[in-house]
Amino acid sequence: MHKKIRTHEETTAMLKVYCSNSENIFKNIARANQSKKIFKVISDWLNQIQKVPVDRIREVLYNVE
């Protein structure tokens, strides 16, 4: 059963949890596939995510073909 979110604070908290869980999944996948270059790059990005502005990450990801 899902809890109904009623406030902006609850929404923000849930998004932080969701993002943290997603980041952990990506880190685990990248760690398990270190021999592949794309996963090495993703791992490096995740390790630097606090240093890189979100706008820059968004711009790069939108331009990936």
Provide a descriptive summary of the structure in words.
The chain has helices at 8-32, 37-48, 54-62. It has one domain. The protein is mainly alpha-helical and 65 residues long. 2% of the residues are buried. It has three helices and no strands. The mean pLDDT is 80.
Which secondary structure elements does this structure contain, and how are they paired or packed?
Blueprint: H1 8-32, H2 37-48, H3 54-62
Helix pairs in contact: 1-2
**Regions with little confidence, pLDDT below 50 for 5+ residues:** none
Rg: 15 Å
Structural class: mainly alpha
What is the helix tally?
3
Which geometry do the CA atoms define? extended
Mean pLDDT: 80
Order of helices and strands: HHH
Gap between N and C termini? 39 Å
Fraction in beta strands: under 5%
What's the number of structural domains? 1
Give helix % range. Answer: over 70%
Number of strands: 0
Question: How would a textbook summarize the main sheet?
Answer: none
